[in-house]
Each structure stands twice: as structure tokens, then as C-alpha cells.
Amino acid sequence: MAASIHNYWMFGLAAALIIAVLAAGCTQQPGDGQETTLKVTGSTTVLPVAQAAADAFGTDHASADIQVTGGGSSVGVQSIGEGTADIGMSSRDLKAEEKTKYPDLVVTTIANDGIGVIVHPENTVSGLTIAQVKEIYAGNTTNWKEVGGPDQVIVVVGRDSASGTREFFFETVMKKQNFTPTQLEKNSNGAVKQTVTQTPGAIGYVGLGYIDSEVRAVPIIVNGEPVMPSIENVVSKTYPISRPLIMITQGTPAGLAKEYLDFILSPAGQKIVADEGFVPITS
Amino acid sequence: MKNGRDCPGGKQPPGNHSFPPVSDETLAGSHEILSRRHRRDRLIRAVWFACAFFAVIIIFFILAFLLFDAYPVFFEIGIWDFLTGMVWNPTGSPPAYGIYPLIVDSLLVTILAMAISIPLGVGSAIYIAELAPSRVKAIVKPAVELLAGIPSVVFGFFGLIVLTDWIRVNFDVPTGETWLAGSILLGVMALPTIISVSEDAISSAPREVREGSFALGATHWQTISRVVTPAALSGITAAIILGIGRAVGETMAVLMVTGNAAVIPDPIWNVLSPVRTLTGTLGIEMGEVAIGSTHYHALFGIAVVLLGITLAINLFATVILARIKEKHMAVNACSPKKSGTGEKQWFARYMQKYKNILAGIVLGLVLLAVFGLMGLLAALLGYSAFRLIQGRISPKWTQRVAFSLIVFCILSVLFALGVILYDIIANGLPYLTWEFLTAPPSNLGRSGGIFPAIVGTMYLVAGAIAIALPIGIGAAIYLTEYTREGRATKIIRTGTDLLNGTPSIVFGLFGFAFLVIYLGFGVSLIAGQITLALMVLPTIIRTTEESLRTVPVSAREGSLALGATKWQTIRKVILPPSVPGIVTGTILSIGRAAGETAPILFTAVVFSTRFLPDSLFDPVMALPYHLYILATNVPGAKGQQYATALVLLGLVVAFYALAIWIRHRSAAACKW
User: Do A68 and B575 touch (CB under 8 A)?
Assistant: First the structure.
């Protein structure tokens, strides 16, 4: 019986400990007093810029807690509209119904982005026209040899149905023709790239920021000339698949949100934009 | 109410109101104290009842709330078109919301997973229960239980990096993200459930039966296959159904390896086709969908369908388990007599007759799945050869073959466990530095550490336990101490079982719709804590109930006879010896809550925050989510991925190991 009583106390102790940990969690004093929070949420394409900018911004503003979350462009618009975030990120413009639902939203363009068509590094295909990309994504072209590549089945990799990148691709490249139902659907740029890296026959599309040596960007053939997805070509508007990246605020930005947006638009911020592989707006 | 003082079994003498002469005359002075105690006891009883009631009501509330959010899609699309539509393309032109392929894919993935894990699981269970030397058993059994502790996102991570690549190369297919990959992972994940429950069933076959069989000169294998296993058949069936439930409801692992193409495999047995399950659809689309759109409501429609499927499976399991209990009682009651009822004999004969055919079909399906038509032919040939020589081969040889198959099963299971652990430990260890554990992440998690994620996970778990523990213990006390087995307890228990079988992604959706949106908590610590608390509540109720039950009735009666009130008896006599059991349940819940991703995906987590949360309404980072994001969203962070997986795995497995150890120790120490 002594042992049981001992256990009983142990149990009480454990419970007290758990509650203490929890209490510590809730009541941790707002300490330094001045700590201010900025919730940034939305497009996974814009996320790397927002995160890197938040890191850099934080070194000068020690008390600023900038929380960056992904989710997707629709979530970005939704969150800012409903007031659950301070800044929404989107890789597409506001839709008409979003503008009517949330009339007070103010859009700040922070960068431009090209969407690169990527394949496995060992794929030898030399270039694709927009029409060829469309045929591949529609499921009409199924082998790389049909478009000048190796004799290999094409694995079509795309984004999930709520993605801004997919929506843009759907309108610009697919001209609103439906994707092949066999396309593998990934919920982020990084996941598309991950799959393309591992899969020799894969084709995918990601923002410029995600293109590096692990995958190969395919030149898009415009008027017979191959055009690489690169910052210069997006700036000169020769690369055909590009779009603005935006941050959205409720009304004109103010306070910490304004400081943060100003920082992104400043030369230092635009350098981050370029470092992350996007196209600065002020070049 | 008189009922208020009823004790289990109704053996207790009636309360003092029932014989006023004695109590009024002898206890006149203490009457007031007694009635005060009485009132307090009634209040306490009411509190426990509220706890138990909560557990039942919550499952219906979840269902109702999901239905409420799904209703518009049933209205707009029509239930029939929603369920049977062949195309899922919510952003196509025109948008299509048909979930038929998703339902079919979910079932296909589950069926193949079961075809893999049932033979392996039952074989391993037979090995552990019947063949293993006690020293081997002491190692293998906990090892299998640890397998249950591996978080599903770790399985998914392993599947994405290693398994899909292996399938792509070895089966020479364009992509390894396939039905097969999903099924292999789910099969491995369902193994611990199937093994543990089957092993319990096999071990509990009465000793006399076994000895009787040996005494008649049967070999060990004949005893196992003709006597012990048939006796445990219903237990094994229940194990399989529980495994199916786990497989149908799993989200993260499946989402990461099946490719998520909403197509029905063509031809239907093409295991190398990508598929998309109901859970996977929720996992990838829920976070990005515009709230209030048809697409949003359609996702809730999917959740309702998913919940419906798992509820059906779990109700089925509950019914079967109840059958087993009845049968056990029947066996105990009339064991000296000749046998059970005619129906059961018929059932046994039936099973005996078709056992081989059934096994053949299952094996054929597996081989067909894995090796195509040639495999099926080979299996058919093998089977007919087996039938041909079956009569002539000596029992000794049959035993030898059977035992090697069983050993093969357990070795495969341990091999799977070993490969996963080795891969994660070997790749993660070099990156596991002090800085990694104590620094915040930077550069999208490619450098820096995971400190905020570790702390965030702790907060989430501590909050979930602080919420679920009192309610769970209260419900369990009410169930064991205050009620007689009857309709009310049956309903409460069924409610708990259903809650237990609810897929974690459904909890996530409910948390999102109700806590985050409807109550306006936003993505926050508290929303995640409540969601996780609901998820672990059934585990706590069940384990507490079990340990309360081990306290013998005589202890209760002794205490009550000494004049203690009901509550005093519970507090001083019944709870103390039950503490190890309750602690075990709590630790298992901690492990489960720490490893789950789906419930916190939409309710509590952020990708990155530099500070620890200040209030319950701040979002947090969490280990499983961090791993999920690193694995799917951040290229070039392989070392950090493995190290995060290792930390998460270590944390959860440590909790499970602790639980197993406590149970082991208290089982040894506490014998009534």
C-alpha cells in the first residue's frame, strides 16, 4: 500500500508539472514589452522572399516578431480579408469576386516572377513551345521523343487545385483547357521540384526562385528562338510565362506592416528578391 | 436518487435512506455530516457524468458540424453526383466535384495494404505468442510496439525519399509515387495494431485446449493451425478491422507517396499507377482553398464521407469484439459441457471449409498485385502442387515449412523496422548538433536549428494532456464506478470507440472549421491543443478504465463496509493502485499527440517564427509540421530533414518506451 500512495503522489507531481509547463506557456510575460507581431500568410511562391526579408528586417528590429506561413494565394487573400493576418501574399492578382467581397484590400507589387518549366537534369530535350507544353499537360503528348527528347514516358507533375501558380499556368499556358487527370499533384513549388529531381521522366513548373542545379529549366521557344527563364528575360518581357507577386494589406499599409513592406521595396529588400531568384521591380 | 448509490453489480446494501430506523436513532448526531457527504458525492457523480457525456456528445458534434459545412455541396452538386462523379477537378472549366475515383482509390490502397500486413501481422503474432523463446519475446514484443510509435509523417518522409525511388528503379516505372508505395507504407503502419491485438487473442486461448491437443499427439503446428488459431479467430478478425480503420484514415504518409492523381488505376489492378485518397485530398487542398467556396464545402463533403466509412468500419469492429466477449463468457459458463451453440459450430465448420480457399484468394491477390499475371499462374500451380502432396507429406515437414514461413514473417517485420530506423539514424545523426537543438531556424530551415519547433510541440502536447486528462479520467471513473453495464454505458463506450477510430485529419478539419473559423481563435496554440486533446481522449478513457477494472471488487466492498463514502473509496482505495495504468495511458497519448501532423496542420502551426508564443492565441512551430514542410517544400535541406525526423522519432519513441517500461514494471509488481 505504501508503494501505491507513493505512486499517487508521483502522479500528482506529474500532473502539477504538466500544468506548470502549460502555465509557463500561457503567462510568459509579454516580457520586453515592445514586441510586436506581424502575421504574413499566403502563397508558397512569395514565401521565401517574405521569410528572408523577415530575417533581415528582424536584425534591425529586434522586437518585431514576423510570422510567415504558407498555405497558398487563396489563403493569403482570405486571411487578409477576414483579418486573421496582417499581410497576405499572393502569386496572382485579386479575382473580381475577391475585390467585391473585400473592397478595402490594397495591393503592393513586390516582385515579378517567371514560371520555369523544369525537367530532370539528365533529360536532353532542347526546348519546348508553349503549345507543346500545353499538349504535354493536357495528356496528348506522352513520350519525350515526340518533342525531341529521349524515348521516355512523360510524368506530368503539377500543383494542387488551390494553388495560384496552377491557376496562372492554367490561364496562360493551358488557355483554360483541363489538365490530364493522371498528373501528379503537389502542394508546393518545393514538392514539385523534389519529385522532378527524383524522377527522370518528369516535367514540372515552378517559380524562378526554385530553379537550381538539381533540375533543368527548359527553354521556351518563342518565334523559333529559345528563351531561358531568367531574370533578364522576364525584365525584358521576352520570356512568355511571367506574373507579378503581390502583398495585400487591409487599407493602406501602416505601422509595422508599412515598415516591413517599405523594407522589401528598398534596395536592400529588392536585393533579397533577386537573391531568392525573383525579378526586382525597380531594376 | 437511489441509483446514485448503486455500486457495480448492485451488491452494495441500499443507502441509509432505506432503513431510517437504524440511521435516525444511532446516527442522529452525524446525520448532517452524512447528508453533506451525500450531497458532495452526488455533485462529484454529476461531474464525472458530465465528463463521460462529453466524450459521446463530441463525436456527434463533430459529425454535425462537418455536415453543416458540407451541406451546400450536397445541395449544389447533389449527393448522388458528388459520390459517383468520375472527375475531381475543382478548378477546371467547368469545375468537377466527383469523388468516386477518390473513394475507389482509398479502398484500393487499403485492400492492398491489408493484403501485405494481414499475413505478416498474423504470422508475427503467432510467432510471438507461440514460438518465440521468452528471451526473444522480451525483445521482439516491445520492438513491435515501438513500431506503433513512429509518427506517420516520418513514415511518409521515409517513403518519399527512399521507397518511391526504390519502386521507380526496381519496377522500371516513370514514377515511384504509386498505389504500391502507399500500400506498402500503410501495411507497415497497420502492422503493430494487427500484431498486438492478434497476439493478445492467440495468447488468451485457454491452456487446457492446447494441452488437450498435445495430449492427442498433435504436432505443435497442428495445434496452432487447428486449435489455437481457430479459437482466436474472432480476435484476429477484430485486429484486422482495427488495422483497416487505421489504414483508411491515415493521411500524411499516403499524401506524401501516392502522387495524388485523381484517377482510377487502369487496369484496375495496376498497382504502379498513381492514386489519390480521400484523406490525401483533404491534406493537400484544405490549406489552400478559399473559405466559403464550393470547393471548400466539397472538401467537407469528403470529410463526411471519410468519417462515414471509418464509423462503419469501427461499428463493425465493436460488434465483433462484443461477440467475442459473449463467446468468452459462454465458454466460461459452460466449459464443462460439451460445446457452444449450433450456430457457432456451423460457423466454425464453415470457416474450416473455406479457410484454404480464402487464404488462396488473398495470396493470389497479393501475388497478382506484385508480380502481375505470371505471379498468379505460379501461385495457382504452387497451390495445386500443395494440394497434391498435402495428404502425403508428413506433419513434421508441414510444421517445418509453416514455421519457416512464420519466422519469415517476423523477420520481414523486424527488417522493415530496422531499415526505417537505420536510414533515419544514419542520415540524421551527423547533423544532430547542440546548435541544431537550441537555435531557431534560418534560411527556410536549411540552416539554424529547430528549437522553437521542439518547444512548440511541448506546449501543444502539455495543453492537450491538461485538457484531456481530467475529462478522460472522469469519464472512466463514471463508466467503471458509477454505472451498471446497460444501455447508457454501451452508448458511451460506442461513442468513445468511434472517437478513437476517427481519422486524425477529420479532427484537423473540425478544429479548423469550429475553433479557428467559427469561434474565431485563428491559427493558434489553443486551437491545436483542443484538437489534439479530442484526439487522445479515447486513449486516456480506455486505459484508465482498464486499470480501474483491475482493482478487485473486494477492495471496494471493504472500503464501503468501513463506512467510507463512494468518493472516499474512489480516491483512497481505487485510484492509487490504478496510477501506473493511467500514467501509461497518458504517456501513450503524449507520444501520439507529439507525432501527429494532420490535426495541427490547419489549426496551430506556422512555418517559422523567431519567438516562442506569448499567449494561447499565438501560433507555434511544431516538429512534425516542420518535417513535413522541410520534406515537401524546401529543396536542399536533406540533412535538416533527417535530423528533424530523428529528433521527432527519438522523442516519440522515448515516450512509448517509457510507457512500455512502466506497464512492464507495474504488471510485475502489482498482483492482486
Answer: no
